[in-house]
TrEMBL record, chains A, B:
Keyword Metal-binding among record annotations: yes
Gene Ontology MF annotations: metal ion binding; proline dipeptidase activity
Record-annotated Creatinase N-terminal domain positions: 1-99
Organism of derivation: Candidatus Methanobinarius endosymbioticus
EC number: 3.4.13.9
Keyword Protease: yes
InterPro entries to which the protein is assigned, alphabetical: Creatin/AminoP/Spt16_N, Creatinase/aminopeptidase-like, Creatinase_N, Pept_M24, Peptidase_M24B, Peptidase_M24B_aminopep-P_CS
Keywords recorded for this protein, A-Z: Dipeptidase, Hydrolase, Metal-binding, Protease
Any matching Pfam family: Creatinase_N
Domain Peptidase M24, chain residue ranges per copy: 123-324
PANTHER family assigned: AMINOPEPTIDASE, XAA-PRO AMINOPEPTIDASE P-RELATED
Name listed for the protein in its UniProt record: Xaa-Pro dipeptidase
Length: 338, 338
């Protein structure tokens, strides 16, 4: 902060406010991060903030009132987060009078801080993953497939099991994609009975931290499904093997992409190889072609190559890993062939 | 659009994209709304967009590529939505070269369009509300209270019932606030056994449209709870009675606030009296002190006064109503005293 010559930083991402204060807003809130950071929140959220925040909480009626705060605190150069909606930014800038001296600059301050996880954060991600895996095993998906349960019934039961095992909620909306729906990486839930291939992508949230896992259950005797599964699994294993501190994220993406391209499915791998996660399910960096971040120890990322054959089916295999000096630790021991 | 002298509008809110095209994005997408509107989406979402969109779909690799689109389409003055993150805006503006002539202006174009609901939209909100109410009745909350179920078990069972009755999902995270947790308007879920007062706020989503209802179940012989319940119910009934086309939203808010203030609880009504809803659970206008919107026929809004006694308990009563010429139609017939 001193180096950048900012007097204060306005945090607007709810997970950054949680990271700083332990309070997670339910309506709107801002954290002014300076020597003594302060939360500004609505009257409606004040009691919850008072109960959960580790730092001082004040009430703010309107975003324009921030100007008074800038004056009271003698703030001249203030960093704001890039997620601030343009309309808020313009409202604040537009209300500035000639004799006011403050200026706003975009700075994604905590994004970098949050890339490296503390032992405490890693423990929470580990717990979230264990809950997610245990719940998946309790679901006994193959049995549900025989009984022709529907996609949303599966997602719903898995959600119940995860909560029952200690999760506060899902870390994102569970994907249960069956038959040709599995060729959509983010298949929306329908009311489809489970068919002969099932792609699932799910996660638990534990003390605010996310887990993220995908498995694809293919049919026993389907050669095409087996071929695609094996290619994705090879891409998965080679990317895992190539991941360690000092390596660039785009290099890992390239490992997965090369395997899949080598088999002629280059155009069918239609997303990046992975992403960092923590309080958010998607954090910086992404493990993608255009990202040049050098991995460091205690980053926590997903590895999730996939192949999607439009109108036919799709396969994705995903685990969450902790980056180490000489390799990674894959969190959990959930089998890949189910 | 012609009046405002825009060549095109960039829609970035997912629900506006759904409103125009029927496609709901799962990653990132933009709709360029001009004579022939076009969706630009990611490779990952392309198949889903092709399947569900009623308008043309193209792929866009990066937000900077929009510049090429502006050139191809000879767009000079482009409206953008206020929800666009400031970082995206700056990226696009920053990539502009000297000989490029386009400029961006903030305009919340569809917000006004979406305020008045079509008969088809009203039918969907009605269906969503019926599903939510039927499911609540099937839940038999008083029985669950006796059996000391926990808050999340109730929320979860209600979610199951709503899906079973035809909802695609909840329209927002269900609130089940018991005992002193009910004094938090947006109480986060704990793992608390149901006590002697329960405040619930829930909604179903049906074909993209939301419902929104709150009920508070007080204890039979608690005088204080009964006193507060009666005040909130009076505020609810008087606001409902005062709502019709031609009335300003702040006037309705004032009706509810005056009743509550009259009994000395002015500072305990810590949110606005209601909000419009539709594809979003919160739409423009809000029924609040500072909003001057004049109600029109076929707006659909909530009326939801509440009193929150910190550390004790809270009461909120909420229904969704359709604004008419001479009054409102309250959607559903769910009793208020349960």
């Amino acid at each position: 902060m001193v180096k950048k010559n900012f007097d204060g930083i306005l945090l607007t991402q709810f997970n950054n406010i949680k990271y700083i204060s332990n309070y997670y807003p339910t309506s709107s809130a801002i954290c002014l991060f300076k020597e003594n950071p302060v939360i500004y929140t609505t009257a409606m959220d004040k009691e919850l903030a008072d109960e959960t925040s580790l730092i001082e909480v004040k009430e703010l009626k309107s975003i324009s009132d921030l100007k008074k705060v800038f004056k009271e605190e003698s703030l001249k150069k203030i960093a704001i987060e890039g997620n601030l909606p343009i309309s808020y930014y313009k409202k604040l800038e537009g209300s500035k009078s000639k004799n006011e001296k403050w200026e706003l600059a975009i700075e994604n301050f905590l994004e970098k801080e949050r890339m490296i996880k503390s032992p405490n954060e890693i423990e929470k991600i580990r717990n979230a993953t264990n809950i997610a895996h245990k719940s998946f095993e309790e679901l006994v998906i193959r049995e549900k497939q025989e009984k022709r349960f529907t996609d949303w019934e599966i997602a719903y039961e898995l959600g119940y099991l995860m909560r029952n095992n200690g999760a506060s909620e899902e870390s994102f909306e569970t994907i249960v994609a069956t038959d040709k729906n599995s060729s959509l990486p983010h298949a929306p839930m329908g009311n489809k009975k489970l068919g002969n291939i099932i792609l699932m992508d799910w996660g638990a949230k534990y003390n605010g931290y996310c887990s993220d896992t995908s498995r694809t259950m293919i049919e026993d005797n389907d050669k095409k499904q087996k071929e695609i599964f094996d290619i994705v699994f090879e891409a998965y294993k080679k990317s895992i093997k190539g991941t360690k501190s000092g390596v660039k994220t785009c290099e890992i993406d390239n490992i997965a992409r090369s395997v899949i391209s080598g088999y002629g499915y280059k155009d069918k791998f239609i997303h990046s190889t992975g992403h960092s996660l923590g309080l958010n399910i998607h954090e910086t960096p992404s493990i993608s072609t255009q990202d040049g971040t050098v991995l460091e120890e205690n980053m926590v990322i997903t590895i999730e190559p996939g192949i999607y054959l439009e109108g036919e089916f799709g396969v994705r295999i995903e685990d969450t890993v902790i980056v180490g000096k000489n390799g990674v630790e894959v969190i959990g021991k959930l089998p890949h062939e189910i």
